[in-house]
């Protein structure tokens, strides 16, 4: 079986581009600069309406920041999982930690049970947990389908040694999917040196706004945004380079 590419899609249009480029699956997210949060009902429905062949997974994450959630945030996650099931989404993506940096087994089990029969991916909360090999076995026991991970490093290339160990320890019981910094020029190396078969990437290019009238001195969001007249979007031409 050839490599499976999952695209981190930041919009319905990115899902269209991912499908056109030949990706097998997308993880649909909002707020990518915050590491991804749950997309809106409308964004999910639009992605479904505009695609026909690609599997759509939805991140269940009520906010950016850490993975220690309040009761109100947990309730929001449960409602979002319910929405995903009602929309017949392929899968959901989430991860929860305790204050001590361990996998929150009780909460993960609650969310996984709520998500059944959807596919479940544990996201990069795994990369900031305290004991990755303990967490690996716990996620396998919970019935999680895959782990998205950079090998507990800032990027997947730096995490190759850990990724290789995780793939070996998993031994086919759960999918280890490298992500973060997976690019056209390094995917073959990551594949060869880890033994992974699924990969997570964004394959984005810059899209420039068609706005002619621009009041650039009045920003709508964070001053860290370089320009409000450009966005990034998955590019089908880049996706095709990973296949």
TrEMBL record:
Keywords assigned: Cytoplasm
A Pfam cross-reference name: CutC
Cellular location(s): Cytoplasm
The keyword Cytoplasm appears for this protein: yes
Gene Ontology cellular component list: cytoplasm
Signal sequence extent: none
InterPro entries hit by this protein: CutC-like, CutC-like_dom_sf
Gene Ontology MF, one: copper ion binding
Family: Belongs to the CutC family.
Protein name: PF03932 family protein CutC
Native source organism of the sequence: Tannerella forsythia (Bacteroides forsythus)
């Amino acid at each position: 079986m050839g490599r499976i590419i999952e695209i981190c899609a930041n919009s319905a249009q990115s899902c269209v581009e991912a499908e056109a480029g030949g990706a097998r699956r997308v993880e649909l997210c909002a707020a990518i600069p915050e590491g991804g949060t749950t997309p809106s009902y409308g964004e999910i429905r639009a992605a479904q309406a505009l695609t026909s062949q690609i599997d759509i997974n939805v991140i269940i994450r009520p906010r950016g920041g850490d993975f220690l959630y309040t009761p109100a945030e947990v309730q929001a996650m449960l409602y979002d999982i319910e929405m995903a099931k009602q929309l017949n989404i392929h899968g959901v993506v989430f991860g929860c930690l305790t204050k001590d940096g361990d996998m929150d087994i009780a909460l993960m089990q609650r969310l996984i049970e709520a998500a059944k029969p959807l596919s479940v991916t544990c996201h990069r909360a795994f990369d900031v947990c305290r004991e990755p090999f303990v967490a690996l076995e716990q996620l396998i026991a919970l019935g999680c389908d895959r782990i998205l991970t950079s090998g507990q490093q800032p990027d997947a290339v730096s995490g190759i040694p850990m990724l290789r160990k995780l793939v070996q320890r998993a031994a086919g019981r759960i999918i280890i999917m490298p992500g973060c910094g997976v690019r056209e020029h390094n995917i073959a190396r990551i594949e060869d040196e880890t033994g992974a078969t699924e990969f997570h990437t964004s394959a984005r290019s810059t899209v420039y706004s068609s706005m002619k009238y621009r009041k650039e001195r009045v920003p709508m969001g964070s001053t860290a945004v370089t320009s409000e007249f450009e966005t990034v979007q998955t590019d089908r031409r880049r996706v095709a380079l990973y296949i």
